[in-house]
Amino acid sequence: MKDLSVCILYLLLISISLFFIGRILPKKWFSYKSFPFRTLPMEQDGNLYVRIGVRKWKEKLPDMSVLCPFLMPSKKLPREKTAANYLLMIRETCVAEFIHGVEILLGFALLLVRNTLWSRILGILFALGNLPYIIIQRYNRPKLVKLYERTRKKEDLLSSAVPCVASGEAVGEELSHSSQT
Q1: Is there a smaller number of Cβ atoms within 10 Å at the N or the C end of the chain?
Q2: What single-letter DSSP state applies at residue 75?
Q3: What is the predicted pLDDT for the residue at 172?
């Protein structure tokens, strides 16, 4: 029984520590374009995860942003649909994937620290418990990237059109046309 308690305490400390590490890691360190966060061809922009039924079970898993809203940002799309907000959400998916991946590795490290029946059982359960969260991040990220890129293009077009209006070119053309009629 002592071995079970030690294993549970180890996994609990890992989870709590990594949760806080994930909150303080600079988001700019994470790029959706880089390995391991880049979408792989076999994932087909998230369609692989649709085929394994992610939509059906992803909402049934515990969500830290609901359990601790004061510590974690919401997983809902932002009210302000800006490229910057979408990019932040994309980076949050990368951080979450990274943290859950590290949790899996450290869960298996339990086998190196304590090679007992309980450590094997809990290490495997811990890994299996974190894997769905990685799948959810990899399912959501391609959709967020599309929203981000589409929004960024719109914002770029709007910002490139603004200097013309500000310099008076567009306004001047309207004035010259209205004065001719």
Answers
A1: C
A2: S
A3: 41
160-180 average pLDDT score: 51
Q: Quick one: tokens of 64?
A: 């830290």
The CA distance from 2 to 6, in Å, is 6
Q: What tens digit of pLDDT does each residue of 58-94 get?
A: 888 887 776 777 666 666 777 788 999 999 999 999 9
Residue with tokens 């880049």: 38
C-alpha 147/C-alpha 32 separation (Å) is 13
Q: How many CA atoms lie within 13 A of 127 on its CB side?
A: 13
Structural domain that includes position 175: 2-180
Burial 108-143 (b: 16+ CB within 10 A, else e): eebeeebeeebbeebbeebbebbeebbbbbbbbbbe
Q: Which of 7-11, 24-28, 39-43, 59-63 has the lowest mean pLDDT?
A: 59-63
Q: Which helix (H) or strand (E) holds 73?
A: none
| Non-local CB neighbours of 15 within 8 Å, separated by 6+ positions | 103
| pTM exceeds 0.85, yes or no | no
Count: domains in the chain: 1
In degrees, rounded to 5, the angle at the alpha carbon of residue 57 between the alpha carbons of residues 56 and 63 is: 135
How far is Cα 161 from Cα 133, in angstroms, rounded to an integer? 41
Looking at every residue in the chain, the average pLDDT score rounds to: 84
